[in-house]
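Hi,

Apologies if this is the wrong queue. I'm a grad student, and the batch job for TolC family protein from Maribacter chungangensis produced an output file that my downstream script rejects. I'm not sure whether the problem is my script or the file. Here is the sequence I used:
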Amino acid sequence: MKYFLSTVLLLFAITVTTAQAKKWTLQECVEYAVENNLTVEQFELDLENAQIDRSDAIGDFIPSLNANTSFSSNTGFSINPTNNLPTNSTQNNVSAGATTAVTLFDGLRNVHRLNRAKINAIANQYRLDDLKDDIRLTVANSYLQVLSNKEALKVAKAQYAATEQDLNRIKELVDAGVVPKGDLLDIQATAATQQQQIVNTEGNVLISKISLAQLLQIRDYENFDVSDDTFEIPISDILNNSPSTIFAKALEFRNDIKLSKSNIELAEKDLAISKGALMPTIGAFFNYNTRYSDVAQIPGPPVSEGGPPVFFTPTFKDQLWIFDGISYGVQMNIPIFNGFSVRNNIQRSEIAVEQRKLQFEQEKLDLENTINQAYVDVNTFFKSYEAAEKTLEARRLAYQYAKERFDAGLLNAFDFTQTQARVDNAEADVVRTKYDYIFRLKILEFYFGVPMTLD
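Support response: The file is valid. Your script probably expects a header line. Output copied below for reference.
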């Protein structure tokens, strides 16, 4: 028993450690967010409803079939249902029947409703896929923000480590009386500022991880973390394509554009359905009915030749055959005047078609503007990153020169810390501009159909 408990505790500890040590990649985050997003689940239910609407539309072509039955009991004066004669007794009646009907023609509205249901199912699929695209972009942005903050934290800690070394060395020089105590105070102030920066950056890392975890519907914020890999500037040839080329490619596969096109087709089907109300409706029906009554009387053969007939009550089974009957026919309804409702519905549908067409053009215009902006952003942020790299290189050279002068006693501590602060700011700019560029690059690639990865 003791061995069993030890084994269980060990396995539990291994499981907890494994869960805590999990580092989420971008692809894992994107896939998990798409599978567990609440809005995605709602849109999936809308897609199921659209499939049911399609089944309803198919059912409009199939004849309906309904059966009915009833039982009644009357005491006192009533009419005998079998001979329509008055009676003053207790009678029990049973009736049953079946009816089938089919629409032969309704202005092709059933055809248009079926086609509309098919298009609506496709449109809901586009709507769902478009939502997943938005989720992928949002998750990628949040993921890169975590990476940017984590890399900024590494830089801040490395800067503080270097300052600590300078601080220890200055303490020794102050104790030896080589440099004034004011230089030590300046270095201590710089170290305190860097400690504060580390605390702020740690807070940024935590907040960004919580934001990403919330996008994934994960509530275990403490154990949630992303991969610690440091991503360099990815190699991409997306800028070899012009904005117009990227826009033309996006029009072919973007789900929001496909959804907008489907909305036009849906509006056109609604218009056809509205116009169908101007045409006659033709339907056919067939009914079968039978009944039974315990007071039913029918004439039988006379007792003697030439004598009056003898009335008797048939059995339940015999009455079902004796009193049954069928009816069938065709009916046509011709719309003549319905208070302008049909005409007004047609006009509303025509307006809806024009609105959907205008919305489609606006969607294309918005997409083109977004791609152009993303194209400009990629170039702008890449140039900003290159400038930040050059600035950092220059700041490091200036820092090294200042350090040599400071070590030789030719530069005071205040000026030296100012040089170091410029290096710190330059390193932070490099981290920020790098991830800004990576995200804009991924956006532009995404509109060109490249999957959202950091490879």
